[in-house]
């Protein structure tokens, strides 16, 4: 299981637009990709809505986990970027 | 009989009084393209946003600009109030229910002063989206529906 912890780079947090971008990218992988905050219940990165339920604000740390290390790297990089500009 | 019941699906109503429009006409490419989900939008004429369906309230954004309901069959319906409203950080919105609540169609979830809000954001057009489109499909869409008629019928794939 690959795991990476990243800081949210989108100024509005992981809301509609950033969440949609991440969910679309996650959907390209067959392996499950999970996101979580502070060890709370993880959500699937393929659902924009479930990403929004995390309530991840700008500057918060998000854990990204998957069997696929490439998927973790790509999703972590997206979370770290400002996707709302 | 069972087949007929299955075919019926679940009906999704407009969350606000106003003009129901096609998602493609939303003035934001991310929503208009269907990237967040498929569905419709409403140009609200009044600032009361209600549950579009019976189910469980699975999301009330901290910024109160969006909420989502999971129907009894499991379809996830997101109501995103206005465009760029996340940037208001909750200013002007009042939340009436909390995440985890069981809600009925028509229950008031979030309210605002529509005229006041309209001045602060590019648009108050509110997309209503099926966000778990891998498990559910939209069977019917009635864009011209008046506010008392269902706009979408969703069915498990």
Automatic annotation (TrEMBL), chain A:
Coiled coil: none
Gene Ontology, cellular component aspect: cytoplasm
UniProt key word Cytoplasm: yes
Domain of life: Bacteria
Compartments reported by the entry: Cytoplasm
SUPFAM superfamilies in UniProt: HPr-like (SSF55594)
Gene3D superfamilies in alphabetical order: HPr-like
Annotated ranges, domain HPr: 1-85
Subcellular location, principal: cytoplasm
The keyword Cytoplasm belongs to this UniProt entry's keyword annotation: yes
One GO biological process term: phosphoenolpyruvate-dependent sugar phosphotransferase system
Keywords: Cytoplasm, Phosphotransferase system
Role summary: General (non sugar-specific) component of the phosphoenolpyruvate-dependent sugar phosphotransferase system (sugar PTS). This major carbohydrate active-transport system catalyzes the phosphorylation of incoming sugar substrates concomitantly with their translocation across the cell membrane. The phosphoryl group from phosphoenolpyruvate (PEP) is transferred to the phosphoryl carrier protein HPr by enzyme I. Phospho-HPr then transfers it to the PTS EIIA domain.
Protein name: Phosphocarrier protein HPr
Source species of the chain: Arthrobacter psychrochitiniphilus
Record lineage: Bacteria, Bacillati, Actinomycetota, Actinomycetes, Micrococcales
Automatic annotation (TrEMBL), chain B:
Alphabetized UniProt keyword annotations: Kinase, Phosphotransferase system, Sugar transport, Transferase, Transport
Database matches in PROSITE patterns: PTS_EIIA_TYPE_1 (PS51093), PTS_EIIA_TYPE_1_HIS (PS00371)
Organism encoding this protein: Arthrobacter psychrochitiniphilus
Origin superkingdom: Bacteria
Chief place where the protein resides: cytoplasm
InterPro entries: Dup_hybrid_motif, PTS_EIIA_1_perm, PTS_EIIA_component
PANTHER family documented for this protein: PTS SYSTEM GLUCOSE-SPECIFIC EIIA COMPONENT (PTHR45008:SF1)
Record GO biological process: phosphoenolpyruvate-dependent sugar phosphotransferase system
Protein name: PTS glucose transporter subunit IIA
Molecular function via GO: kinase activity
Cellular component, GO annotation: cytoplasm
Localization terms from the record: Cytoplasm
């Amino acid at each position: 299981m690959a795991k990476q912890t990243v800081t949210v780079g989108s100024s509005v947090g992981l809301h509609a637009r950033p969440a949609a971008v991440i969910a679309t990218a996650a959907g390209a992988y067959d392996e499950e990709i999970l996101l979580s905050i502070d060890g709370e219940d993880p959500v699937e990165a393929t659902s924009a809505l479930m990403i929004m339920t995390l309530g991840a604000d700008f500057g918060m740390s998000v854990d990204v986990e998957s069997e696929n290390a490439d998927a973790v790297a790509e999703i972590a990089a997206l979370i770290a970027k400002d996707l709302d500009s | 009989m069972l087949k007929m019941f299955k075919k019926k699906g679940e009906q999704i109503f407009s969350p606000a009084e106003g003009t129901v429009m096609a998602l493609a006409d939303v003035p934001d490419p991310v929503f208009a393209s269907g990237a967040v989900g498929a569905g419709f939008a409403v140009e609200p004429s009044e600032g009361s946003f209600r549950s579009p369906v019976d189910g469980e309230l699975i999301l009330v954004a901290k910024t109160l600009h969006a909420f989502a309901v999971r129907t009894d069959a499991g379809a996830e319906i997101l109501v995103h109030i206005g465009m760029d409203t996340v940037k208001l950080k909750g200013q002007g919105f009042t939340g009436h229910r909390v995440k985890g609540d069981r809600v009925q169609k028509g229950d008031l979830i979030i309210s605002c002063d529509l005229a006041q809000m309209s001045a602060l954001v590019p648009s108050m057009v509110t997309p209503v989206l099926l966000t778990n489109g891998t498990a559910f499909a939209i069977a019917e869409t009635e864009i011209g529906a008046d506010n008392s008629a269902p706009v979408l019928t969703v069915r498990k794939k």
